[in-house]
């Protein structure tokens, strides 16, 4: 499960992955869809779709969330 692997990374690596725009979007897509496939749920599906479409912009919000809480928003 990719989202668990992402959460186990050091904060510096998580922040670097979310700081670079293209890598940010790919990371968001992989983590969000992995989280939805494992846990299901309507909110996780909506977030996966939103991050697929608006991932680069929303990724910076997740960067702040990761720095504060060490996991992505709604992906713990």
Structure description:
With 76 residues, this protein is mainly alpha-helical. The chain is built from four helices and no strands. It has helices spanning 2-8, 11-19, 21-39, 42-69. The radius of gyration is 11 Å and the shape is globular. The termini are close together.
Provide a quick synopsis of the model:
With 76 residues, the protein is mainly α. It contains four helices and no strands. The longest helix has 28 residues, at 42-69.
Work out the number of β strands: 0
Q: Which class of secondary structure composition applies to the elements?
A: mainly alpha
Through-space gap between termini: 12 Å
Radius of gyration: 11 Å
How many DSSP helices? 4
Name the overall outline. globular
Percent of residues in beta strands?
under 5%
Roughly how much helix do the residues carry, as a percent range? over 70%
* Secondary-structure element string: HHHH
Mean pLDDT equals: 90
Major sheet, described briefly?
Answer: none
Poorly predicted ranges: none
